[in-house]
Amino acid sequence: MEIENRNQSVCIVVLGDFGRSPRMQYHALSLANEGYRVDVVAYGGSKLHEDVLSKQMINQHLMADLPEFGKYFPRSLVYLLKVIWQSLIVLYTLFSLRKPAYVLVQNPPSIPTLPLVWFYCYLFPTCKLIVDWHNYGYTILSLTLGECHLLVKLCKWCEGFFGAKAYGHFCVTKAMKHDLSAKWNINATVLYDRSSARFSSVTTEQSHSLFVKLMKENSAFGPSGSESWKDFHQNNTLEETRFTIRKDDKVNWIIDRPALIVSSTSWTDDEDFSILLDALEDYEIKAGKGERVLPKIVCVVTGKGPLKSYYQSLIEAKNFLFIEFVTLWLSAEEYPILLASADLGVSLHFSSSGLDLPMKVVDMFSCGLPVCAICYNCLEELVHHNENGLVFKDSQELSQQLQMLFEFFPKQTTKLDQMRKKVKSFQQTTWDQTWLCYAKQTFLL
Fold this sequence. Notes:
This protein has about 450 residues and is α/β, with parallel strands linked by helices. The protein starts with a helix and ends in a 7-residue tail after the last helix. It is built from 17 helices and 15 strands. The chain has a seven-stranded parallel sheet with strand order 3-2-1-4-5-6-7, sandwiched between helices.
């Protein structure tokens, strides 16, 4: 089949940072592996998957960044100018490329992406439009504008009208498949998210190496009582971290170490970080009273986003004794190792539509890490309560779960171990297997 497809190409359109769209990067890799030439039209910014960068069949066509319209025009005009700018840039880029056999577009955002790619495919009828539904654009807009806003209604109409005209569709959950069918008579193929091979379980040696690297920049990863990398060097404790120790060429976990939890967040409105902050504040109170034997917690929060500085100021105002927060931005190589080295993941992603699943949980499961995840409609398609993770509704319930999981930690980890065993079944299915089974046929018909 590779020989048959060699003269065909697929154009992937992402009206966002391609580096922060792992699913579309995986699409690009899968298509390239099948012999398609892949042209990616997207914005730059974040570092891409190494396999994407090294694949000769994948070519990036980065669009010019948006001008800072907000500095020169009133807010009422900024959105319109943004749409016009993006429309011109996308169309110019598309028309400058070789004509593809397929255009695969990520939705959301819906405006102006869906009308533009539909128009392009309308001009070239042999070019087939395929939409990958990650969520609904109109439900994301409604978070800030409200459901009755004219722009929200326009976005909903746009998704339904132009989306329904596409040749093929992928979506991320069974719930979304049913909703697309009921709402717009769209028949989509469920293509569950899976992580790349980089997301997997790691050895204690790999965890130790990462901790040694991180403690050079943050004392939270260094031996208890050390305050700086200078202390570590002077005291010759390079082989000891907050969590691991090397002795006689063998790395072991420290017996009285704190619990390590990880939460990856985009610091946006659809992820209420205050839930985790309030839960840990309650945990702090309970640990301080000594009614339960609870360990200290190092909470690592990764990600970038508009609300990061706001929540950092709230964290700094707290006077925690049992909780230590660390905010990090890790490389693509380091992040999976951190997940696999942690004791628990926490997901605060609350779907605007109630129809998509958190990719961060997929990454955590791929690394063998059980999770506590905030509850919403279709989450059970990924997180099975009391099996591979726990589901919570509010900060109080999350606090209770943390106390239950970490009581007598690390000497007693029965529940965590049970959940880890269940996560192993998730690790057995890869993106490549899923894509070949459910997506490949769409590009061959």
